[in-house]
Amino acid sequence: MHIQSLTGTWQFREVGSDACPEHGRGASPEHGRGDWSPAQVPGSVHTDLLALDLIPDPFVSDNELRVQWVAERDWEYRRVFQVAPDPSAALGTGPSAALGTGLLAEEQIFLVCDGLDTLAHVTLNGQPVGRAENAFRCYRWDVTSHLAEGENELRVTFSSPVAHIRSRQAEQPLVSPTHSIPGGPHLRKAPCQFGWDWGPQLPPTGIWKDIQLEGYTVARLDDVHLRQHHGRPSSPPLPPRRGKGEVTVSAGVTVERWQDADVRAVLRLIAPDGRVQETEITLPGGATTGTLEIEVADPQLWWPNGYPSTPSTLLRTSLLRAGGAQPLYQVEIALVHEGTICDRRTFQLGLRTLELRQEPDEFGTSFTFVVNGVPVFAKGANWIPADSFPTRISDDHLEHLIRSAASAHMNMLRVWGGGFYEEERFYDLCDRYGILVWQDFIFSCSVYPDDDAFFENVRVEAVENVRRLRHRASLALWCGNNEMEWGWVQWGWNDPDYLRYKAAYDQMFHHLLPGICAANDSDRPYWPSSPSSNVPFEAPNGVRAGDTHDWEVWHGNRPFQAYREHNSRFVSEFGFQSLPPLETVRTYADEANWNMTSYVMEHHQRNAAGNGKIINYMTDHFRLPRDFESLVYLTQLLQAECVRTGVEYWRRNQRCTSGTLYWQLNDCWPVASWASLDYFGRWKALHYAARRFYAPVLLSVEDWGPEVALHVTSDLTGEWQGTARWSLETLGGDVLEAGEEPVTVPALSSMQVCELDFADQVSAGPSTTLGTSARRDVVLAYELWQGDERLSLGVVPFVPTKHLELGDPELRTIVRETDEGFEIEVAARRLARFVWLALAGIEVVFSDNYFDLPAGRTATVTLPVLEGWTAERVREALRVRSLVDSF
Ligand code: BMA
After folding, report:
1. 191-194: which pairs have CB atoms within 8 A and are 24 or more residues apart?
2. How buried is 818 (Cβ within 10 angstroms: 0-12 exposed, 13-18 middle, 19+ buried)?
């Protein structure tokens, strides 16, 4: 086997219809048509033009509108490369020359394009090689007869995705989301790139994944199916296992052959501690399939983040996690012929069992992920593409996002169907950090074509992606699409003209895709749509079975408390928008536009009426802000409070509900949105709140006016014991009544600790001890303790926060340097709501932020080591504010 990578520096130019006979259309001449310029592969036209300063940054101001032409034109990429004549005659010393050495000596040479986005026509040395029309497929073309010794020229011509969907849409109008360029469903390309209610209309064009030449002579590995069998008899051909806890890894290999020679398939398993186990089989001449298996010595199980955990691990994980810690095995499969490796693949494997438990119960039918026999409450969020131009997402940024999810105690992300199947590095990180992946197939909020060619295109895409990802420990579920079953049932798509598309929907999501999953990944559950009840077209968003998207709050304008009327089995979407942090706003709007209703701020808000909704909810909760920075802060508090209200309720209600994935984790550009991490990865208030409301042991308060109930919810796999303390106190700290309760919570459960009725003290009527004005000066403060460690601290007011008589809390801080970084102690003389810490001149993630601090309490916040920083410098740079400073 020889591989010659073709990634790196290419050239590109704009072309006219003549250059792209397959999908061609005209292009106007003013943007350097005809001139070749340097390009990067993987990359895109937008990022290449940006690098050359030929377009303004589309994420700044309303520049998006100024670069619309880019996706409306056709573009051509070319690369001239050398291929060495034979193994003994390497050309030069450059990396590509060295890699190319020997390629021509192989009998079969393929051009392998892992991702072409999207409508591409490929030629090698002027001869057509192939066409691509699906950004989610890998294209593999035989170029043996096209490749020449010495210089070769590869050209990839892309026709405009926008022109394509426009003309297809004119012929065959299909439903697509209101915020998108109409017609997106006609093209197998990330739907949100045509625009979404949080995303710009900037569909990229280009070679967006690896591209390489692969040469073989004897055989290659066509497919490898890794499976694991845990401590139970498995179906033949695997022999029964001896006892519980034993794990066998099997690898089904399929080989493509050009010679009938005997080949050996070798399976190597490298344990997390480096121990190697190896086995092999011989595939005699002509044989194309075989199965290898290894019984894993002392198997170490993979677990979702936070599992299994006990009270002692709880205290250790309360620190910000520095890196993933899941035990991962490396698997290597090699195909060997006469001592030479013909082909080789490597995989990262986590050992675990996984099941989606759906059993009848008093609430309907359960929907619970069970890993290694332990029912897991899914805590997480929805994942969207991390950049409108995905090829520029750095490894560090991607890891920051996944690590941030894990730091907030998340154990599941849903790769939403409006983006794309993610790259290997995404799943590598999810494996490492213990993040389960709910994987949608890429269909969202639309009606899709029903013709055979479209179905065949999707079939190949689905088989490829299922086979690519099925070995992943993190992969928990295949889901047909986003919100399309709901669309058919409730969004008025049932027009008689559309019946044929409904039949196609039924065929695609209830037959074709589940069939592909069953045939290629029978170890993983398939779910028809999100949301769905699993009974076609029956109550897709119903609360008795399956998952739900709860948009009553936000889209339906209902108050936050309305979540408590929604007894879902699994909430896979719900959420609330906020503005991104000021530093992020600064990247797209200059100070003159720092106003919620300015043109630029509205341009960076894609949900019609979104800003109005935020202000509307704000008037329910907070006083109107004194300046723009305070506005940003308040929008983030609202978002955090909203999602907290939902999650705390559903975690309390975990006998019924088995998971919450809020909408959405991240952003693809700087914008007002539902994300808790903004485009740059900055933590909004919601992300800090998630770190509290997703904590393994949670004290939450069910508040219905003067009556409240304290609950403790535990995800620990063992019993938890501790103490809940509460006090009814004035904002200045005078305690009116206080109490404490010892708490013992059984594993994986939630329980009410106590019910408190403060009607005599705080009800609105005239007979109360405290009059109306006093209710504005009193809160319930609560704390949860494990031994002498305080796990959480919070407050519940009895009036809307806007009516609290907050005064200056006189916040005082002490900064200390520690072995692990810095420690900041914050103390309040009066109640401080939503204490907000920042360091001027540096971006940091604190261990906690935007938290409540009742009078007389101290909170300790930690910071990692900051290169070149001393305690003195932290002290000087520290900014501490709270709610009272916002109005
Ligand atoms: C959900 C998602 C997205 C959308 C979000 C916010 O329904 O599936 O389509 O962006 O709501 O409206």
Report:
1. 191/417, 191/418, 191/419, 191/442, 191/443, 191/444, 191/445, 191/446, 192/384, 192/385, 192/418, 192/419, 192/444, 192/668, 193/385, 193/388, 194/161, 194/162, 194/165
2. exposed
| Cα-Cα end-to-end distance for the chain | 68
Evaluate if residue 325 carries a pLDDT over 50: yes
Contact 710, 756 (CB under 8 A): yes
Say whether pLDDT at 33 is over 90: no
The encoded tokens of residue 302 equal 């993979």
Distance 286 CA to ligand 1 centre (A): 51
In this structure, the number of other CB atoms found within 10 A of the CB of residue 374 comes to 16
Q: Specify the length of the chain in residues.
A: 887
Mean pLDDT value of segment 284-310: 94
- 340, β-bridge pairs: 337
**Closest by CA position to 392, among listed 80, 122, 51, 63:** 51
pTM above 0.85?
yes
* pLDDT tens-digit readout, 118-133: 999 999 999 999 999 9
Banded pLDDT at 27 (limits 50, 70, 90):
very low
Residue type for position 287: A
Choose among 193, 169, 202: nearest CA to 447: 169
Give the integer Cα–Cα distance in Å for 381 and 617: 22
In which residue are the tokens 């070995």 written?
471
For ligand 1, atom 12, the nearest C-alpha belongs to: 197
For residues 574 and 629, give the distance between their C-alpha atoms in angstroms, rounded to a whole number. Answer: 26
pLDDT class for 762, splitting at 50, 70, 90? confident
Gap from CA of 459 to ligand 1 centroid (Å)? 26
**Which residues surround ligand 1 with Cβ inside 6 Å?**
196-198, 418, 445, 482-483, 549, 573, 663
Distance 649 CA to ligand 1 centre (A): 22
